[in-house]
């Protein structure tokens, strides 16, 4: 064995020696993963054939090739016995160094390639397991997304049902409240007229307060009715000349306009595919607010005009998904307000002033927002205290049909 060590160690191999078959078996089972076994046929206690048979009974050792080293040229029967025991080759003594190095190099190279294949297989198994886990997780995620979508659709259905029921409730409740309010106003008027001479100053003041509260209640009910009917009327779109519509709104406010000596300038407005009833309520609220919140001792000046972003018209023609907007401005010189309230004023019942200063229900601007959104647009406002406010109605250009010349 010394001669074999001398031959093989210069090639960088690590050699482990065993003095007997039992010692070799113990080392193989306990410590190392070997590339090759060089085994002498003649050994103490157990010969090489017996040792090879025991080695190959162990599952973990079956892959290790065995080369028998022998000084005797046994007959074919003994050679077959060696092969049956698991030997892959024989080397005869005296050992030919070149032959030994060549055979060892072949089996070590096979061992390395086999090891690489095993590592590659394990890597592929790990990748496959990872893919299986990823596929499973994706399926689980898809199922969760589908379940969330189903829940979302169910919630949307329930919300739509609840909104419709709420609208019906608001309509019915408001409608039913009209009759007792009319009676309150009628009987308070009769009380004031019939018993005017019998009523002292306090009684007259109380009746006036009753009438005023009833008027405010009727205005509130009317606004709630208007608000609840938006959903029902939103789909009744027709081509409407905005110039005519605004003129009708201004005509309805003739007395207030004259009383305040207001000047309303209406420039060229488009013909839009809209719901005229809803837009009439929209302009009525916005122009009415401009008159209501005018400065004291200064005549209201209201400008109504249109602006179309023509710079984007080419992009709109090429790709209709790029929305352009037609913007309608209602500009006044009134008392204005702090710009920090620009979003909150469109909330239901939001008011920046008390009833003692300016009457109102706090529903008008919420109604305006709902109307514009039903037309797939949006409404915004720019304002400055003691300078005035500008309300901007923005509508997608695809609702614009034609523009008067």
Describe this entry's structure for a reader.
This protein is an alpha/beta fold. Among the domains are: 2-95, Rossmann fold, CATH 3.40.50.2300; 234-403, Heat Shock Protein 90, CATH 3.30.565.10. The protein is 54% helix and 16% strand. It has twelve helices and eleven strands. The protein has helices spanning 2-8, 21-30, 48-55, 76-85, 97-194, 201-228, 230-233, 242-252, 254-260, 276-292, 313-318, 364-374, and strands at residues 37-40, 66-70, 87-92, 238-241, 263-266, 270-274, 301-308, 325-332, 378-384, 388-396, 400-403. The strands form three sheets. It has a five-stranded mixed β-sheet with strand order 5-7-8-10-9, covered by helices on one side. Strands 1-2-3 form a three-stranded parallel β-sheet. The chain has a three-stranded antiparallel β-sheet with strand order 4-6-11. Strand 9 (378-384) and strand 10 (388-396) form a beta hairpin. It is rod-shaped.
Helix and strand layout, with pairings?
Blueprint: H1 2-8, H2 21-30, E1 37-40, H3 48-55, E2 66-70, H4 76-85, E3 87-92, H5 97-194, H6 201-228, H7 230-233, E4 238-241, H8 242-252, H9 254-260, E5 263-266, E6 270-274, H10 276-292, E7 301-308, H11 313-318, E8 325-332, H12 364-374, E9 378-384, E10 388-396, E11 400-403
Parallel strand pairs: 1-2, 2-3, 5-7
Antiparallel strand pairs: 4-6, 6-11, 7-8, 8-10, 9-10
Helix pairs in contact: 2-3, 3-4, 5-6, 8-10, 10-12
